[in-house]
Amino acid sequence: MKTTTQTQEWTYAREETQDSGSERLFLNMGPSHPATHGVLRLMLELDGDRVVKCDPVIGYLHRGDEKIAENMTYNQFIPYTDRLDYLAPLHNNVTYVLAVEQLAKLQVPPRCQAIRVMCCELARISSHLLGLGAYGMDAGAMSIFLYTFTQREHLYTLFEKLTGARFTTSYTRVGGLTRDIPPGWLEAVSAFLDQFIPALDEIEGLLTRNKIWLERTENIGIISREDALAYGLTGPNLRASGVDLDLRRDKPYSGYEQYDFDVPIGTKGDAYDRYLVRMEEMRQSVRILRQVIKTFPPGPWYAEEARKIFAPPKAKVLTSMEELIQNFMLVTTGPQIPPGQVYFEAENPKGALGFFIVSKGGGVPYRLKIRGPSFSTLSILPKLVPGHMMTDITVILGSLDFVMGECDR
Amino acid sequence: MTIAFYNALKAQFPGLKQDMGQDMPVLEVLPKDYRALFEFLKTVHGYDMLMDLTAVDWGLHSADWPGTTRFSLAVHLFSSTQKSYLRVISSIQESTQHPSLSALYPAANWHEREAFDMFGISFQGHPDLKRILMWDGYPYHPLLKDFPLAGIETDLPAADVAEATKATVIAAPMMGGPFRASGQGAASQTPSSQAEPQALDESWTESRPKPSCLKL
After folding, report:
1. Does A401 have pLDDT greater than 50?
2. For residues A93-131, b (16+ Cβ closer than 10 Å) or e, as one string?
3. What residues of chain A lie within 8 A of the CB of B197, using their CB?
4. Residue B60 to residue B46: CA distance in whole angstroms
5. Which residues of A touch B26 (CB under 8 A)?
6. Does A21 have pLDDT greater than 60?
7. Cα of A360 to nearest chain B Cα, Å
8. B-chain residue closest to A367, CA distance
9. Which residue of A78, A229, A409 is the best one to mutate when testing the B interface, meaning the one whose CB has the most B CBs within 10 A?
10. Which residues of A touch B199 (CB under 8 A)?
11. What phi and psi, each to the nearest 5 degrees, are found at residue B71?
């Protein structure tokens, strides 16, 4: 495992154990390893096949998003939010604009809220499907990946119809959206949901009572309730440890209080519980989506009165002087947000994604801090991994379902 | 935040200031009470989750304004039982050693490392205060307001590779993009790849020249 870029501390650690006469293997896992889901690097100390010490090294995907945010207008930053949790870009878009809107004390119309809820839940299904596919593959269940990616393909088609992009959606704007839903989109979502539940049953049939799957995941990576809270775990990882906390229900935003859904929680907090919680969450997302489609409100899809925040429709910009000026000011100076400080968190697929925005007024944030849920999730690894077998690491990493984009920012 | 809760806190920590923020209650604590306040909030009031810990840099010239310090620490707590948020802010100077919360909230460990990495704030009693997002040996703190957006040329992280290749980490070329670069346009003599990108806030303007300490 000797590489040219071996760090100094690594060498020290090796010398120390050689002095004490024990036989330890120092193993470097990542940053380019298929099971590390991106560019996570683990420095492992092994005693035989058992992990004694695990030291995660992050930062390989650090792009300085927070520095960049301080230098551009609020709307210009939306494409950067796509690249935080890049498996659920639509949800990041929504969370970010909700934070800015809270700072601006802006309320968007019900139709806009409903579209955003649909974005969030479709993104959640998409993210959980990928998480599940990769998790299965890490544990050796290769075929799951094919089933989940077939479903994700349907979702990407829906995203493309809605936003014009399959992956980096940049769909929301402060005070609204880039566009209304296209004709026939709700029916297309309905059709997707109708075929999705049987497909999910099929995936569950492959895994949930599968002897090999149970052997690989049960009692592996147990996170106690206390540890989960102490390390700031959120989302499905926290709920799998038995903490009944879901921001959609407990701190409702974007009209989530109108919809009826259950919050699944685990009992043991092992890798199998995390799998079960995500499976049930997808079903609950389908339930929410069906309610939104049933009660889909008419009316405007952006905050019409927010003239200093949301750009008017293009047709008006091209025909009316006032709207032309309004559009010009918004493009050059950005949406005008009052001074203040806001911290807003929403229930993203990976956990609570938070934005802390300090504004001195005007179109540019003075400081924008991103609280990526995966950052906190990974901070538990030094405590969680030791004691497990080397081969269990891939299962633990898969079950935590993190993404380095929002960890390193 | 209820009145009773605030009074209980105020009796314990006389220097405490309270404010109803537009998103959550805000407590401003003196640096000397910082650690004790969190212990009180966690054990007595059930704020059991530390969601986020970060700093805000008020700029090189912030000391010119009365009553302002260089940094504010902002900590966001959440109570999983009462489902409520709380923001605690503390104004600190560059030089002050700040107590670490990582023994109380293990979640603070990485967040404090990030604040150290990005702002150079050191936390007393932190078990392993080293860089987290930038590499070990990186000489700057990039989220400081006086650090340029394009970055500064530095050595490669791996000394042996740097020696063999004679390469360095170069600053980002700031052509195009959403940043305002000075010297852009046909009339300008400076090629845009060499123009200094300007932050859109008040720093790095003609009236406030870039600080010379960075030696670009």
Report:
1. yes
2. bbbbbbbbbbbbebebbbbbbbbbbbbbbbbbbbbbbbb
3. 71
4. 37
5. 341
6. no
7. 9
8. B56
9. A229
10. 70-71
11. -120, 155
CB contact B136 to A (< 8 Å):
yes
Nearest CA in chain A to B79: A229
Q: What chain A residue is nearest to B109 in terms of C-alpha separation?
A: A379
Burial bucket for residue A172 (CB in 10 Å: 0-12, 13-18, 19+): buried
For residue A342, the tally of other CB atoms under 10 A from its CB is: 23
Inter-chain CB proximity A105 and B85 less than 8 Å: no
Q: Quickly state the pLDDT bin for A7 (edges 50, 70, 90).
A: low
- Beta bridge partners, B84, equal B79
Q: Which residue of B has its CA nearest to A339?
A: B22
Provide the pLDDT for residue B205: 46
Tell me how close the Cα of B67 comes to any Cα of chain A, in angstroms: 17
Chunked mean pLDDT (size 10), chain B, 216 residues: 75 79 84 85 87 86 67 90 89 80 90 91 88 87 83 81 83 53 48 50 47 39
B64 at interface of A, judged by CB pairs closer than 8 A = no
ipTM of this predicted structure: 0.86
pTM confidence score: 0.85
pLDDT at A389 exceeding the cut of 50 = yes
B24 contacts A376? CB cut-off 8 A: no
